[in-house]
Amino acid sequence: MLEAIRERSKGWLAKTILALITVPFALWGIESYLQQAGSNVAVAKVDDDTITLQQYSNALQGVRNQLQADGKVDPSVLESPALKQSVLDRLINNRLLNQEVKRANFYIGDEQLSEFIVQMPEFQEAGKFSQEQYDQILTQNRLTPSQFENSLRGDLLIQQARDSLDTAVFVPKSLSKQRLETEYQSREVSVAELKTADFIKQVKIEPEKVKAYYETHKDKFRTPEQVKLEFVLMSANTLISGMQATDEEAKKFYAENAEKFQGDEQRRASHILISFGVSATPQAKEQAKKKAEEVLAEVKKNPAKFGELAKKYSQDPGSAERDGDLGQFGRGAMVKPFEDAVFSMKPGEVSELVESEFGYHIIKLTEITGASQTFESVKPQIRAELLYQKALAKFTEQAENFSNMVYEQSQTLEPASKAFGLQLQVSGWMSRADIAKFFKNDKLAEAIFTDEVLNERRNTEAIEVSPNNLLSARVIEHKPAAPRSFEEVKAGIEDFLKLEAAAKLAQKKGEDALVSLKQGKSIESLEWIPPVVVDRKDAQGLTELTMVEAFKADTSKLPAYVGVADSNKGYLLIRVSAVGAVLSEDEIERQAAQRELEAALAAEYEAAYLKSLRNKTKVKINQQALRSDSSNN
Predict the structure, then answer these.
(1) pLDDT single digits (tens) 299-312
(2) 495 phi/psi in degrees, rounded to 5
(3) Angstrom distance (rounded) from CA 126 to CA 69
């Protein structure tokens, strides 16, 4: 039981979605929930409560954005049915909980809500709640305070329901001790494998059996439906050759992105700051400037006393005590006016007054280490970047016209080919799987086999098969699925039947050996791998199947033996010769393990509770709307 609970609660996908579609949604992206911008088609109904296509799409995109921010950018994950289903399930679960908290009269008071908002890190500035930050973030997200607070109140109510489930978790000490000892246990394991391949020579398959298998399973032996395609591809990369970038543009890019080309250059400077304060009046700024000019005059009179004057006049307490020294820094570390001045100076040079948001600076450059990349050294790289940016802009400009043309002139791709100078390409025979693999895009494969493209010979819509690559295709020839002849497949059937029979021989021999081993007999012909000590987190190279069976073994008497068929690969004999403890007697570690167990049980309680709510609630899912959304993503 513990293994099942642990596996169910630890998946990163489930954890990510759980984290995303709870309280944080009150702030990020909730305006789309409130404003109902876009499609109101229902993708699901929970009793009379509707989850719209727009709500689902926004939730899905929010999860994708977070996964990408976390570094999980594998397209197969972002587009996977598992991800989409998990997002929809979580939205449905939230509706179920929302209905339940209303029935149970859960309540979040104004004071409790206010306290939560004040503690949210998004609204903190210098460790304290900032009303200005709060107003700014809500404005950026197009939310009124009442919209945000009502939504947050709803999310907190749902969280309150989840927290109440956690309090129901109780594990008696005796059971907890037993479970933890089982969970945090090591076992010394060795494996002997009876391989199916070693038994194949003992198998002979009669021709009649091969023929009989073919006749019984004809549906398995079919050539898949295939098409020949005509297609055009619009790519940003192909537009690069038509772009130009001048030296002036390259120099401007170099200046505007200097931090990208700083190499290992670091600069050390000291400064004297005469501050004029936040939101200073013109009069205050004028006074500060006058004072700064007086100090600058003193510095110029005796530059060697810069450190003494910094201690005397500088209003930057962090550096004043160090003679104004700011240490070493690279580009991007200082505010831009200060940075621009420092990186235009020579060692020993003192600047004129430099105004920043903090006040007026008098800067002395004391040291340069390392070197930045010169314009000439990075000029080819910059030109390539500029050419690609221009090609990307041109691609974006043309994309809509391309999409419109392949749609409006849907019986041919020639107009689009001529208008945009694209090569009209023709494929060989391709199945649905071939298309998905060749173009690395499932959406295109699905579109090809729709009725209007397959039978009416219309163009597909312009599909982004990969970033900045738009493709439209049409079917020029079609072959329906057809049965393959016996002669084509008989060799494959014979090999399959041999493998199947050999696997049964391996299993039979393995099961006989297992009986003997349990009786204490030794079997010389078995080749055991050297024993390894494993625990649930460290398999030492053993397969998942071996680990599962090894920890299922009854170890009341050692050595313990178990056996399991490994698909058609053969039969595994597993020997457990010793059992040890992984969990130390350290109280902190034991408490952490206890919390992990309780968290796993809490997740199981929540899953069971939500299942019970779903069983007594009418939940209807609009699969057609979901497919439509998938095709538009």
Answers:
(1) 999 989 999 999 99
(2) -60, -40
(3) 25
